[in-house]
Every structure is written in C-alpha cells, then in structure tokens.
Design brief:
Blueprint lengths: L2 H22 L3 E3 L2 H23 L10 H17 L4 E3 L1 H17 L6
Antiparallel strand pairs: 1-2
Helix pairs in contact: 1-2, 1-4, 2-3, 3-4
Length: 113
C-alpha cells in the first residue's frame, strides 16, 4: 500500500472516530458532517504533530500515559479555536473525548502500524 493511501485511510478512520466521539461525549460537538470531522481530524493531527515535535515522544498519544492523555485533551481543546465553526469543545468534553479516543485507538488504531 502506498504512503498516500495509508494517510488517507488514517484520516478517514480518525474522522469516523471523531463522529463517534461527538455522539458519545457531552461537550464535544463536530459540525459539518463527515467533511467537518475530516477537517477536525487534520487540524488535531497537525497540532499533535507540532506538540510532539516541540515536547518530544513522551507526550505522544501513542505513549498511553497520563501525560499523553492530558496532552491529547489540550490538543483537542485548542483545535476548536482554529476551526470554531466545525468544532466546539468544553474542558470536560475535551477530557472525555481524549479518553474515548484513547479507548477506540486501543481497539481500532488510527495510526497504521
């Protein structure tokens, strides 16, 4: 499988996860349907990449520790300021979303290994 196809599959799965999280988590709303979720997935991935580049691998969501959990919640919370028309998150919603995303990622990884 080519790298581009892997990237596309990763973002499609991530968008679907965000839609599921939007249904399950109070205080976490993705607007714009699948396209809105896809844009939110890209923004969250870019923010996560920037944070990981600045702070190191320890804060990566793949780290699966409390630091990575809090970092994921902060990244989700900050993403709403970049795309306010597509994503609305309160602090509790960001924490719940980070937890649900972590659980889903443990079962259906959004990063192809």
């Amino acid at each position: 499988m080519t790298d581009w196809i892997r990237v596309i599959i990763r973002f499609i799965v991530s968008a679907l996860v965000l839609i599921v999280v939007s249904w399950l988590s109070p205080g976490f709303v993705v607007r714009g349907g699948f396209v809105g979720a896809l844009i939110a997935a890209v923004v969250i991935a870019v923010l996560g990449y920037i944070v990981e580049a600045l702070l190191g691998e320890r804060v990566s969501p793949r780290g699966r520790g409390i630091v990575s959990f809090i970092t994921a919640a902060v990244v989700i919370y900050v993403a709403q300021f970049i795309i306010p028309n597509l994503l609305s998150v309160n602090l509790l919603g960001a924490l719940i979303a980070a937890f649900i995303i972590g659980l889903i990622d443990a079962v259906v990884p959004t990063v192809l290994r």
